[in-house]
Amino acid sequence: MKPSIPKGTRDFLPSEVRRRDYIFSVIKKHFRRFGYQPIETPVMENLATLTGKYGEEGDKLLFKVLNNGNFLGKADADALAAKDSDKVLASISKRGLRYDLTVPFARYVVMHQNDLAFPFKRYAIMPVWRADRPQKGRYQEFYQCDADVVGSDSLFYEAELTQLLDGVFHELGLKAVIRLNNRKILAGLAEIAGMADNMMDMTIAIDKLDKIGWDKVAEDLTSRGANAGALQVIKQFLDAKSLDSVAPLLADSEIGKEGIAELQEVFDLIKQSSPLPRGEGFGEGVYNRLEFDVTLARGLNYYTGAIWEVAVDTDAPGQENIKMGSIAGGGRYADLTSIFGMKDMPGVGVSFGAERIYDVLEELDAFPADASEDLQYLIVCLDKETLNHGFGLVSRLRARGVHADLYPKAGKLQKMLKYADQRNAPKVVIIGSREAESGEYSVKTMGTGEQETLREEKL
Amino acid sequence: MKPSIPKGTRDFLPSEVRRRDYIFSVIKKHFRRFGYQPIETPVMENLATLTGKYGEEGDKLLFKVLNNGNFLGKADADALAAKDSDKVLASISKRGLRYDLTVPFARYVVMHQNDLAFPFKRYAIMPVWRADRPQKGRYQEFYQCDADVVGSDSLFYEAELTQLLDGVFHELGLKAVIRLNNRKILAGLAEIAGMADNMMDMTIAIDKLDKIGWDKVAEDLTSRGANAGALQVIKQFLDAKSLDSVAPLLADSEIGKEGIAELQEVFDLIKQSSPLPRGEGFGEGVYNRLEFDVTLARGLNYYTGAIWEVAVDTDAPGQENIKMGSIAGGGRYADLTSIFGMKDMPGVGVSFGAERIYDVLEELDAFPADASEDLQYLIVCLDKETLNHGFGLVSRLRARGVHADLYPKAGKLQKMLKYADQRNAPKVVIIGSREAESGEYSVKTMGTGEQETLREEKL
């Protein structure tokens, strides 16, 4: 039998795991620094928790786990005879794999509300599962990296999450554009354009401006019910670009003004509290390009205030050719938990697309040189008699915390050096009978081929 | 709707995640130090990979994932009508959740053999799933922590894995007994006792010596076909205890002598290469108690050479009352991958019972004091006007790598200190209008209640 893995899933080689871990560890470091705390939830959730939370399409993409034992025992005989999968499902499966980290988080907050201190700030870096058709860059099993704070509507969190996004990409050595908008501004626009009842339609059309240009957007808007007046208002709005020039256009909309004020406060907070060294960044208080983007809508209906979307900055030198959509995003929501019966739990959060960030760093060759290497020394012995000496040396090195390994047989140097290369060992300690006697070891640097003689203490 | 999670699964609070992470990180640190490399495999495997690998009982305990879409479409109508779950299964489910880390590892080695350098040393710290009946300390979703090396039969690996087990428990501050035996010794005993054909029966009986005493073991052995001569040989053997006194009893068994020689070499290697400071440990070259245990058999048929089992040392001061079975174990196997068509792949590995180690450390109150705390400073503001000042301070602290958080509203000090306590913050920075002006902050140490005045640079 030739083994395989399910389509849409992946194995990772050690060098890949290490580079993935590098990304996760940078994200985790900033999450922790900003006071977000780790929680863990099970991979399997009750289907009652998951079903109906992601729309009809989402329900179809949930992986369902079969009940154990004689699972057909309680199934409806008529539904079985009719091969009615939907109807049979409820009687043969009561668990599913988590689809995202948000719904399990909501469930968690409700179940553990008495053990949590609010505002509650949590992060989670865990895999999720979706039965999407697998394609390049899209998997059925992939990681999400989320940080959220719930139980407060303070704008300090919008400011700090912007700083957090900024800090992560700065540390990863990736120049990013952090785009920020506020749903209330879009609601204001819909109001003054007379499209308050189909705001969703409006934002979907506007969202495509970058890709298809104004003429097509206008066509689309018209087909969605915008009249000539609405088109004019919207065009003016999209041309405005900066917060200052948008503000007067929203003077007649209460919600629109609120959105402007909130966003202005967030930008001010970031600028005033900037921890950047002088001369760094774009003058907005962050390392990366931070922009107000009135076209930014993000699909999720769910958001009610700030929304972020982060992309690779293709204006930055060396990054011109990167074709990649959003690499992080997030937003504020008025209500996390009422689906589980707990009211008044507003929150705000961001999420990193670690899999896409991996692809970008790979394409830019921007992983640190040591991100895929772990071993410090490989010890090789030229003859059998020195192997035990080699084992003593490797034991003592490890006890000192050095990452070291011993090639377990005496062999041809060439073969052992090849193994060192495959193991990504930067240095090789070569032991022959003379070295074993004198304690003066030949140490070869794999990258340069340089060789020096060192005593154990110097390793 | 009142939310819940599937029985046998768990949510973890931040303090629990941190303490679990502490254990994982100690184990991982030693895995890396000893040259083991991380790999990752999918949570979902093809059922064809998993089925038949864990015996009939294991097959029943596999969690199976329903095919997506109209899963009943291809199901056999007669089997459905008869509600024959076993027969229907193959047509409605082709994936399952991994049951352990060994079978996926074997599959991985076969699939990626051309990308791996042998001896290949890998570790994995990942959850597995078993549909066991949940009970205290037994979960349906739990972590395994495995390190294995495949592609070599060198005894250096037996020696280093013993050092690795020793190093992990030493660093965790847990005194352990590491018991070591060799299947070949048991095979030799079976040979000389005339029980070569029912060696498994013999080892199962012997394995219980500790719990039920010799008389009951003898009864059991008799019922399994041992005659009086066999009983005498076995009794003599069990009384021998040390390797030296067992050796002469096995003089007539080739395989038995091989087992003795192997074990002797492993003990010698460990002792000779001991990196321990003088006076530490029990004189065997390791920190913990290292013992030859001829009764140690371990259930798995699978092992062919060395076998380990590690338990809490209840002779150690303070650990007398710990009732816990094996907290780590492992062994050598002649063949990992032939189930997937790849021959000659011997290996040896160990596995840590992280969930049990957690319970033991909890019971001994042996987690480091800072294992569940992460935040260094919580900043609280006494009035609204100083909040922005507080935000500036927290931004600058974080930029310096300090783990800091800001309570987002001005409030009563008592309430904010309670929040600091719930967040496990060791220090609280208190800002009133005077502090904001002078830059001299009141810093309260939560543990002692002490208060001092510090400038930002001193935080």
UniProtKB/TrEMBL annotation, chains A, B:
Predominant location: cytoplasm
Protein name: Histidine--tRNA ligase
UniProt keywords, alphabetically: Aminoacyl-tRNA synthetase, ATP-binding, Cytoplasm, Ligase, Nucleotide-binding, Protein biosynthesis
EC number(s) on file: 6.1.1.21
Subcellular location: Cytoplasm
Annotated Gene Ontology cellular component terms: cytoplasm
Molecular function via GO: ATP binding; histidine-tRNA ligase activity
PROSITE patterns: AA_TRNA_LIGASE_II
